[in-house]
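mind reviewing both lines:
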Amino acid sequence: MFLTHLKFLQFRNIPDTELVFSEGFNGLFGSNGSGKTNVLDAIHFICLTKGYFGQNDAQNAFFGENYFSLIAQFSSSNSVNDTVFTAWQLSDKKVFKLNNEIYPKLGLHVGKFPVVMIAPADLVLITGGSEERRKFLDNLLSQADPDYLQALLKYTRLILRRNLILKDYRNGLPIDLTVLDVLDMQLLDANQIIVETRKKLLADFEVQVTIHYDYISDAKETVSISNITQSENSSWVELATKNRNNDLQAGRTTFGPHLDDLQILLNGFPAKRFASQGQLKTLVLSLKLAQYDFISTKKGKPALLLLDDIFEKLDEHRLTKLIELISQPQYGQKFLSHTSSEALESLFKKTGKPFKLIKMG
């Protein structure tokens, strides 16, 4: 699977443009602010129904406009072609179509065109709070496993309802506690799917992260990853009963997979506190490449790989190792951004793979 064309209309600072891509490496070059990162984010948007950097839909519209659209054409090795269309306008719902068929729910599109993004801000996977690592896990598993995505959507919806009731209680409003009992029964299956899927992932995922870390860093450190959770050995109803008083006093749900975290250790010590900048960058790359491997294997096709501004954030050794790795046959179409066309061209020529340079701005 690879992206052949992407047409922009009033998206960010790209008002009306159509880009054509290579099946191998694609280098987006231009000055800062020319739109390189916006192209990568548009690809992420067309694949996962949302951008990578958390903007709401209104922020994706060209300055002063109240609408935008994207049209992407994909081709596969068996000559199957797909067209994805998305559009948003003020005071209306975002629309996604696959081959002119509107999705009744946006979640049905997730995973059809797998994608992995690597960006400078990804250091928060290690240095940031637990929410960043949960988002990483949820992105990985939602693309690979439709059942996980549906369980996560259901869980999130029910937790929001549960928290509203708990907040009303804390604020002194009358509530019917039996409603909490009903919600807890509805949460039982979704919680179990989320907990068991995450647990099943991590055993193999740690191995893949270690393999990539060893390759990039020449095997100088030991990496370990584990899930910090309250939910593994208890059902949702058991946990809800045990934590009922705490929840009522706090006005929110104080347990569950929405509060889980990943513990990432380097040589037995928390990477968040003890890793150097070089070690942090290598860890992030290893996590992302393991994510890529997992999703591609589960979907039976290579994901798109988006690399934003990696030249400025990696030393020459790590950059060389990374490019060597993603030049291997199991990696599919790649998109890289940089200010210099010469640097991109020099890098791509060393791989011996097809490439295209695209000037932005």
The longest helix spans residues 177-217. The CA atoms of residues 144 and 295 lie 5 Å apart. The chain has a mean pLDDT of 92.
